[in-house]
Design a protein that fits this description.
Rossmann fold, four-stranded parallel β-sheet, 4 helices, globular, 137 residues, alpha/beta
Length: 137
């Protein structure tokens, strides 16, 4: 059986989509091929790495990538995580299920001090809830 390919998309592919990729990979085991990308990719945010590490998920090896890399890769489910990404998300060829989750961006600069982490934790926890629901469907 072929695994469904899921891609999480946000603007910078620095925070939300990176965390979602790590979470679905961890929560669904090997049930899906999981990717993340950005409409305007930047770099992996260190605070995202820290808050995911708090729950035992290592995303430090992830890289920020462009949606363009995945257009012709047979994506089955595209999940946009912000309104901006939804507006700028290209149309994937084939019968791709489009899902939109409007999740607030935790980014407030490139700091990753203890005081900068609470919005990243909130985003991570919201993604856990959404992915749990997604897996039950």
């Amino acid at each position: 059986m072929n695994k469904k390919k899921v891609i999480f998309i946000c603007t910078g592919n620095a925070c939300r989509s990176q965390m979602a990729e790590g979470l679905l990979h961890e929560m669904a085991g090997s049930s899906f091929e999981v990717f993340s990308a950005g409409s305007h990719p930047s770099r992996l945010h260190p605070a995202s790495v820290i808050v995911m590490d708090e729950i035992g998920i290592d995303i430090s090896h992830h890289h920020s990538e462009s949606i363009d890399k995945y257009i012709d890769s047979g994506i089955d489910i595209a999940i946009t995580l912000c309104d901006n990404a939804q507006k700028h998300c290209p149309t994937f060829p084939g019968n791709v299920e489009q899902i939109h989750w409007s999740i607030e961006d935790p980014y407030h600069g490139w700091n990753s001090n203890d005081g900068d982490l609470p919005p990243y934790r909130e985003t991570r926890d919201e993604l856990i809830k959404r992915i749990t629901s997604f897996l039950k469907e």
